[in-house]
């Protein structure tokens, strides 16, 4: 059965390395993290450009909806 190393275990072992080996460890870890970040790069989101294409909203409709939304603000019961 293989034991999983904790961060504390790794840090303890790192203190046993020579300064040169620590530098080599940092370089190797940096390269590995860079590869991991490239592989797990988030997928680009779809563009919302044109999402409202064909929807015609008049200024009067916006004004009417705004007044309806704000008619009870601020409420006295809160």
Describe this protein's structure.
The chain is about 55% helix and about 0% strand. The model has no long low-confidence stretch (mean pLDDT about 90). It contains 3 helices and no strands. The protein is an all-alpha fold and about 80 residues long. It has helices at about 5-15, 20-40, 60-70. The chain has a domain at about 5-40. It is elongated and about 75 Å long.
Describe the structure concisely.
Helix content is about 55%, strand content about 0%. The protein has about 80 residues and is mainly α.
Count of beta strands: 0
Overall pLDDT metric: 89
The main sheet comes to: none
Number of helices: 3
Radius of gyration: 29 Å
Q: Judging from the principal axes of the Cα atoms, what is the shape? A: elongated
End-to-end distance, in Å?
60 Å
Helix content: 40-55%
Secondary-structure element order, N to C: HHH
- SS-based structural class? mainly alpha
**Percentage of residues in strands:** under 5%
Spans of at least 5 consecutive residues with low confidence:
none
């Amino acid at each position: 059965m293989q034991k999983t190393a904790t961060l504390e275990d790794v840090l303890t072992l790192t203190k046993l390395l020579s300064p040169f080996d620590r530098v080599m460890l940092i370089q190797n870890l940096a390269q590995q993290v860079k590869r991991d970040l490239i592989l797990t790069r988030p997928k680009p989101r779809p563009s919302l450009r044109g999402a409202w294409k064909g929807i015609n909203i008049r200024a009067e409709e916006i004004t009417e909806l705004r007044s309806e939304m704000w008619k009870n603000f601020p409420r006295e019961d809160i």
